[in-house]
Amino acid sequence: MARQAILVAARRSPVAPRGGVLKALEVDALAAPVLTACLDDAGLDGAVVDEVIVGNALYGGGNPARRLALLAGLLESVPALTIDRQCCSGLDAILMAARLIESGAADCVLAGGVESFSRAPLRLSRPRGPDEAPRPYDRPPFTPWPERDPEMADAAAALAAHAGIGVETQLAYAVECHARACAARETGRLTAELVESAGLSWDAFARALSLATGRRSRVIAGEGESRILTATTAVEADAAAFVCVVSDRFAAARSITAGCRLIGGASAGADPELPGLAPVAAGHKVFAATGLRAQRMAAAEVMEAYAVQAMACARELDLPAASLNRGGGALARGHPIGASGAILAVRLFHELRGEPSGALGFAAIASAGGLGTATILQRLAD
Predict the structure, then answer these.
(1) Which DSSP symbol is given to 324?
(2) Is 87 designated active site?
(3) Residues with Cβ < 8 Å from 19, sequence gap 6 or more?
(4) Domains of the chain by range and CATH?
(5) Of these residues, 38, 87, 108, 244, which one is catalytic?
(6) Which of 33, 131, 140, 242 is most buried, most CB within 10 Å of its CB?
(7) Where is the Ig-like domain (predicted)?
């Protein structure tokens, strides 16, 4: 009988904009308390962990997964792996953990993502010869063709034109996102998932955004109806998010009944010039593999790197409007690249904890280069 992957705990740090409250924390210090909280929530000792898998895009190498695992007090014998699929990395790490579980190669894996824009190294291209100087750059190329490797804001503007989603519609979405995030903070909706970090116990960026304020925000790409504003763009941010994934046999042996079953997950490639639509391909792939329909999703967490991206993906996937980003999305939190997909999974886990047994939830995220990852979780009975 095939093994099933069960998420038995899910935690995250608050998200803070680059240069904010979390700016002094290296990624291991940011992530280690979140790993510890996951184990505590699951009632597990670090000795049972078979693997740690961490998504990270900006830290500059060095396998930060190993550093944070050791700082969290895990045994030196526990291996740790860092993966990079840019924005998809945190969710990919969780799917990789599930596949290890399902294959029988592991019974308990800590997986997620961490990113610090604040501590990311400065980047220089090495000179090719003695007559060249080191050249600073912000990001590596994501395709081999410069003409098909747009800046993400330019790609969002192209998506707005492609999807016919105007700037006023984007702004209205952003205003509602901030309102949901503020309401979630005030009602304590997010309390169970958050681990205090550097004295911060809530997402720092959410605010009472108005249409008037949004209209005054700076244009960063596009023109006319398809322009992209800072108010409709997620800010660069710092955060960590992790889940504890175990096999159903492991859970049964320890009488663990609460959590979410990972029903399916998929990654897909799409047009690099419209990377924001890549989650649509991944979503269709996972729905086809599981035989489930989008309309059955009680909760959905879709990445909001840009308002237009989330809106276009939700529309193309036919997700129920009432299920989408109910506690606010990345527009009201920020976008800590390697952690963002894991934050979606943590949010989905906790949203489903408020639903009846058997309720289904969906999460999806896009990545530069035209890549997308999606997953479906199902709430278990307590």
Answers:
(1) B
(2) yes
(3) 118
(4) 5-119+235-379 (3.40.47.10)
(5) 87
(6) 242
(7) 150-257
